[in-house]
């Protein structure tokens, strides 16, 4: 396997617009990204379970460590070559955003916030990710896309705030920070998934964070109490294997097929799914407004998926290089 590092590759990857429509598989992309959303929707309830057995710093460190070991095994088994140097800055953004930043900030938030209330950060994440993508890649979804994305975010935020009585919690500062770093990580990961398989994107990002995970585990475990329970162990295993590795694998692969903006809007359904899991696993209450909010969100998702496929591109600049050589890793 080799990585092609020509000047043309660097320019194309630096902009990394969405792949040409003729090379996409939209149905498969929606399915894969949707599976990622289902995996992510279990993250908050699983984290609450994990906190029954581990302190917040220990849980995050162990989560990253276990996921990195899974990724290392997959990369070794697949005999995957080390990515080209120009990919590492993007992988560092993925590692900082979705491997370290988002898990740490949301875990700290969940010490004082309920899983249902924390879902408000996910209500803003689709719109924030689409904005990051537009700034980073130069994609230009039509106005109908932005209108539906904003409407979906408003519905989700209104519903989740109504669920929590409209009050802000002490963990909201952590949740706002998690929103920003996760959107950056999603955008960069979706961009990289156009030039390498999605599982390699998250795999190398996890490897990059491995030294920090090892150090964090060594420091945190002796300082925080550990009380092993069935819930705690299941929660840790899921956030490591399900949310961090498998979920991000299918998520980034789906993004590569349908583009970051369209994939991001599928996450409008995530808070509602999280509320369902929170009710089933944690016993948190779900109001009668949930079906109404669900229908409204599904309508917004349908509009973003229909209009997002007609997004335009910048008229000039190196984005046109993507129609030629894209610097894809080849076997």
Characterize the structure shown:
It is a single chain. The protein has one domain (28-311). 71% of the residues lie in helices and 0% in strands. The protein is built from 13 helices and no strands. Helix 2 runs antiparallel to helix 10 (230-258) and helix 4 packs antiparallel against helix 5 (88-109). The protein is globular and about 45 Å long. The model is unreliable at 1-22 and 310-331 (pLDDT under 50).
Rough outline: globular
How many strands in all? Answer: 0
Biggest β-sheet: count, sense, barrel?
none
Percentage of residues in strands:
under 5%
Average pLDDT number: 79
Key descriptive features of the protein:
globular; 331 residues; mainly alpha; disordered C terminus
Structure described in brief:
The protein has 331 residues and is mainly α.
Topology at a glance:
Elements: H1 7-15, H2 26-41, H3 43-50, H4 56-77, H5 88-109, H6 115-137, H7 143-163, H8 172-192, H9 198-223, H10 230-258, H11 260-265, H12 270-282, H13 290-308
Helix pairs in contact: 2-10, 2-12, 3-10, 3-12, 4-5, 4-9, 4-10, 5-8, 5-9, 6-7, 6-8, 6-12, 7-13, 8-10, 9-10
């Amino acid at each position: 396997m080799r990585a092609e590092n020509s000047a043309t590759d660097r320019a194309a990857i630096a902009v990394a617009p969405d792949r040409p429509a003729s090379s996409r598989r939209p149905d498969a992309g929606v399915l894969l990204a949707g599976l990622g959303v289902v995996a992510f929707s279990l993250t908050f309830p699983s984290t609450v379970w994990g906190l029954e057995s581990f302190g917040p710093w220990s849980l995050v460190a162990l989560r990253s460590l276990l996921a990195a070991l899974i990724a290392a095994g997959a990369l070794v088994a697949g005999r995957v070559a080390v990515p080209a140097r120009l990919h590492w800055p993007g992988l560092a953004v993925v590692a900082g955003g979705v491997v370290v930043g988002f898990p740490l900030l949301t875990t700290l938030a969940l010490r004082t916030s309920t899983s249902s209330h924390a879902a408000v950060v996910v209500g803003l994440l689709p719109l924030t990710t689409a904005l990051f993508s537009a700034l980073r890649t130069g994609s230009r979804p039509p106005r109908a896309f932005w209108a539906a994305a904003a409407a979906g975010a408003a519905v989700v935020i209104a519903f989740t705030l109504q669920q929590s009585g409209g009050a802000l919690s002490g963990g909201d500062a952590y949740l706002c920070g998690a929103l920003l770093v996760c959107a950056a990580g999603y955008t960069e990961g979706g961009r990289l998934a156009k030039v390498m398989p999605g599982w390699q994107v998250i795999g190398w990002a996890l490897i990059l964070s491995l030294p920090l995970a090892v150090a964090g585990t060594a420091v945190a475990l002796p300082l925080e109490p550990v009380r092993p329970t069935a819930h705690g162990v299941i929660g840790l295993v899921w956030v490591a294997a399900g949310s961090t590795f498998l979920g991000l694998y299918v998520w980034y692969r789906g993004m590569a097929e349908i583009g970051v903006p369209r994939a991001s809007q599928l996450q409008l359904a995530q808070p509602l799914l999280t509320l369902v899991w929170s009710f089933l696993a944690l016993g948190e209450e779900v109001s009668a407004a949930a079906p109404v909010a669900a229908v409204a969100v599904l309508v917004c998702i349908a509009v973003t998926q229909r209009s997002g496929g007609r997004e335009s591109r910048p008229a000039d600049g190196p984005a046109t290089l993507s129609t030629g050589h894209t610097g894809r890793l080849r076997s």
